[in-house]
Amino acid sequence: MTAIPNDVRPNVTDPNNTASNGPDRLDEATIADFHGEENLTRPRSEAPQDYDLVILSSFGGPEGQEDVIPFLRNVTAGRGIPDERLEEVATHYRANGGVSPINAQNRALLAALQEALAEKGPNIPITWANRNWEPYVSDVVQNAYDEGKRNILVLATSAYPGYSSCRQYREDYGMALEKLGLEGKLNIGKVRQFFDSPGFIQSFADGLVLGLKDVRTRLSEAEQKAAGNGKIRIMFCTHSVPTSAANEAGPRGVDYEGGSAYVEKHLQAARAVLTRVEAVDPALLDDVEWELVYQSRSGPPSMPWLEPDVNDALEAIEGAVDGVVLVPLGFVSDHMEVKWDLDTEALDTCDRLGFVATRTPTPGVHPEYVESLRQLIAERVAETASSTDPAELEANRGGVCGGKGWFDACNPDCCKSLRPGSDKARIADYAGDTTGGTR
């Protein structure tokens, strides 16, 4: 098994708030018997193809006040949530003129990727589609087919494994093909989850270096400190999901650190970020501890979700640290959940508790992040792939989290919900043998 990176600084992630498909934490007592997803023997890379279009695929967001409720109806379709409940969430968007920042951020990323592809290849057009707002996936797929495209590669703006971050995108396109009657007429593949890509990790490391320097400078100038001990807590923040969804993340029959593929990959990414910060200046991590926390949960209080919530985690360290750095590790751009849940609610909590605090940037259009996305596209396109052999492509992967990277095509049961009616049409299904391999 590929060695799992050691903590470079103490990890105080609460082991009582994990999912249940694996050990709370890897240590000397558990690692000898650990058989995680890294032991799966099935291929991870597919042979490159002559793709003729890339679609940057995202969540979507409203573009004005009149769009807010229709957009939220799309997001919550099938859940029977009345408009008065949706209006509670709508206040976050209405405070921003009814406009979600995610659309402008996706347009900026699209432009950056277009420039990168034009400069370094592959020579392939790229467009944009959304799950919950215009331009809708079905419309973009139909337009592509009408323009003669027959082999499409989807790049979703989500880095980690999980239902809403991976499988649901596969379903978006599978159901679009089914709805449009294009099954067998149009091939659609998907770029793998990129939590371990060098540029993704480097963008967070760069932001964390600046964030730690900022907090240390402000602490040195502060007349009064929350604890007076100089300690700093790094909170790596990601979107909470129901514990049931966390348990379902990844292929079946696999143990994961933290009990879930979703949790494990965030822990691995956090370690990779800290390793790069330590390489820049080890002193930046003096008197620093870190943990993985969650945000943006929804649904009834009776439904268990991954915890702790970032605000609860902040309350728990009142009087124990002087500074806090919030790192939005689960997000690729400064969209509404980052701007509201972290920049508004979490930083307000920090202020109330007396912490000197900052929130570091998301990748956005960080040059190294854009380059990593370009490389992920290039490894799938015949024109620019380093090999035509899937085994060589897998060996050439440049992941920085200590593993083999995610799958170009996922197992049919990967991230599948156990709820009735969850077996929907989808793209990027692995057709080979998925049995065995976890020893």
From TrEMBL:
Gene3D superfamilies for this protein:
3.40.50.1400
Q: Is Lyase among the key words of this record?
A: yes
Per its record, the protein catalyses: Fe-coproporphyrin III + 2 H(+) = coproporphyrin III + Fe(2+)
Q: Where does Fe(2+) bind?
A: H239, E337
Cited InterPro entries: Ferrochelatase, Ferrochelatase_C, Ferrochelatase_N
Region annotation (Disordered) maps to 1-26
- What does the entry list as the binding residues for Fe-coproporphyrin III? S100, Y169
Q: What class of enzyme is it?
A: lyase
| Pathway(s) this gene product operates in, as recorded in its UniProt entry | Porphyrin-containing compound metabolism; protoheme biosynthesis
Sorted keywords for this record are: Cytoplasm, Heme biosynthesis, Iron, Lyase, Metal-binding, Porphyrin biosynthesis
Question: Localized where?
Answer: Cytoplasm
UniProt EC number: 4.99.1.9
HAMAP family on file: Ferrochelatase
The protein's role, per its UniProt record:
Involved in coproporphyrin-dependent heme b biosynthesis. Catalyzes the insertion of ferrous iron into coproporphyrin III to form Fe-coproporphyrin III.
Q: Which family does it belong to?
A: Belongs to the ferrochelatase family.
What's this protein's name?
Coproporphyrin III ferrochelatase
Question: Which organism does this record belong to?
Answer: Rothia endophytica
